Amino acid sequence: xxxxxxxxxxxxxxxxxxxxxxxxxxxxxxxxxxxxxxxxxxxxxxxxxxxxxxxxxxxxxxxxxxxxxxxxxxxxxxxxxxxxxxxxxxxxxxxxxxxxxxxxxxxxxxxxxxxxxxxxxxxxxxxxxxxxxxxxxxxxxxxxxxxxxxxxxxxxxxxxxxxxxxxxxxxxxxxxxxxxxxxxxxxxxxxxxxxxxxxxxxxxxxxxxxxxxxxxxxxxxxxxxxxxxxxxxxxxxxxxxxxxxxxxxxxxxxxxxxxxxxxxxxxxxxxxxxxxxxxxxxxxxxxxxxxxxxxxxxxxxxxxxxxxxxxxxxxxx
Amino acid sequence: xxxxxxxxxxxxxxxxxxxxxxxxxxxxxxxxxxxxxxxxxxxxxxxxxxxxxxxxxxxxxxxxxxxxxxxxxxxxxxxxxxxxxxxxxxxxxxxxxxxxxxxxxxxxxxxxxxxxxxxxxxxxxxxxxxxxxxxxxxxxxxxxxxxxxxxxxxxxxxxxxxxxxxxxxxxxxxxxxxxxxxxxxxxxxxxxxxxxxxxxxxxxxxxxxxxxxxxxxxxxxxxxxxxxxxxxxxxxxxxxxxxxxxxxxxxxxxxxxxxxxxxxxxxxxxxxxxxxxxxxxxxxxxxx
Lengths: 317, 288
Known about the structure:
The complex is a heterodimer. Helices cover about 25% and strands about 30% of the residues of chain A. Chain A is of the alpha/beta class. Chain A folds into two domains: about 5-180, HUPs (Rossmann fold, 3-Layer(aba) Sandwich), CATH 3.40.50.620; about 200-315, TPP-binding domain (Rossmann fold), CATH 3.40.50.1220. Chain B has one domain: Rossmann fold. Helix content of chain B is about 25%, strand content about 30%. In chain B, strands 1, 6, 7, 8, 9, 10, 11, 12, 13 and 14 form a ten-stranded mixed sheet that branches. In chain B, β10 and β11 form a beta hairpin. β18 of chain A pairs parallel with β16 of chain B, so a sheet runs across the interface.
C-alpha cells in the first residue's frame, strides 16, 4: 500500500491543515508521498520535506494558479496511477471540493471526513454521521481509495526528520470541464486572528449578541489569542460573516478551550464543537442545551459577564 | 430560441434538475438509536434535507422573475431516490413550483453517493438539463460528495458550496462559493453542476436573468399555498429503476458497523465569573 497526500497551498505556503492528512498517512504505517500543486510549490516543498514522505512531488504549472477541482483532478489522478492506492486530503473546503472529483476520475470509492482509521486486513475508516450523533465504520471496495480527513480529529503530524526528495511532476492535459470554469475573484476575510481550524482557543458568539457581536467578543478573543466563531443563527442574521460558522455544515473545531457565548446549542452547532477539550458556556437561559456539553456553565447576561470575564482575566495575567 | 413569456428577450428558458432526499428530522438527530449494525431513526419525522430544499428554492428563483413568481420562465425537474412513500417529498417540491418529478425506486441500503451520482449521470443524459442544482450535503450521511462526483462523471464544471448565484444570460452563472477563508467567485459555463450552501436563500443571493438586481426575496424558502398543493397532485411524476440509469449497481462503500459518539462527562455550573476563571486556571488548566 502507498498513500498520496494532497497538500493545500495558500499564498506560497503549505497550510497547516495538510499535516492532518500526513498524520493519517503515518497512522497506516505505509509509505507515502506528498503532492503540492500551485504557484510556489517548489519552495513550499521544503516545508513538508521533514515528515518522512518518500517524495514531495511538485508542479507549478500555470493551470494550477487557482485551486480549481477541474484543473487539479486530472493531474492528481495521473500521479496516483503511478503506484498509489490511497489518496488523502484534509477535509477543508479545498479538500471537500476536490476529493470526490478525484475519486470519480480514478473510479475510486470515497470516504469523506473520516475521524479515525484502523488497519484490519485493509483500511477501515470511522466517520461521523447524523451531525456527529453516530459514527460509522466503512470499507472502500475499489482498488484505489480516496479519503478526506477531519482536521480536528487528526492532530497535525510532527516533523520526523529526514529530507524527502523533491521531484517535478508533469501537469496532465486539461479536460473539457476546465475550460468552462473561470476564476473571477477571491474575497478573503481579513483577520489578524488565528485560523478557526488551528486555534488553541475559540470564542464563539450566538444571535443574542446582535449588533454587538464584535464589540463584545473582540476584547476576550484578543486576550486569549483566540479565533472567533459563530452560531448559524448569528451568521444568518448577519451579525457575523458566514466563514465564522461553527457546526455540522460549517467549520468543525476541537480546540483546547471553546467558549460559547449566547449560543443555545442547536444539534448542528454541537456537531462542530463538541470534540473540544474544555467547553465553557455563558447563557442567560439555564435550560439551554449548550449546558449539557459544557464543562463549565455560567448562567448570566453575557453583556455584563463577558466584560467582567475580560477584567478578571487581565487581573491574573 | 424561444420568446420567454411577456419579455422581449430572446433567451432560452433554462432547464434545471434538482435531486432531493428526505432525512430523519435533523433537529432531533440526537434521538437516533445506534446498535452495532444499524442506525435506527424510527420515531423521527421525515423532513426534506434542508440543503435540498434550498436547492429547490434556488432553482425556482433562477427560472422566474422575482417580481412575478407565479410564471415559470424555465423548467424545474425534481428527482429522488426512495420507496413509494418518498413521493411525498417530491409532491412538496411540485407544490412550491417545480414542474415535474421523477422517483428512482431504491432503498438507502442499495445506494451510496457514488451510485446516486452515476444514476444522476444517466438521468442527465436523458433529460439534458442546463444545470444540476444540489444541496451541498445530505445531513444523515454528511458526506458532501454527490455534486462533485456527478460533475466529474459528466465532464462538467462544478461550483460547490454556493452562497450566491447570478445568471449571466442563458449561458453562464457567476457563483460565490463559501470557502474556509471567505468567498471565491467563479464563472461557470452551462451546462454545470452547482451545490448550494445555507446563505443561498438570503434575499439577494440568487438573481435570474429575468429578475432585477434590486429585487429582494423573502429570507428562506417559499411555502406552498393550499391551491398549489392540490394542483401539485396533478403534476407529472414518473418512476424509474436504478438499472434504467446505471448499468452497474455495485457500491463502492460498505459500512461494517456503527457506534454512538463518546459521551461527555457532566459539567458543573459556576456561580460567578471569578469562579469560572479560577476553575479554568487551576482545574482545567487551559488558561494562564
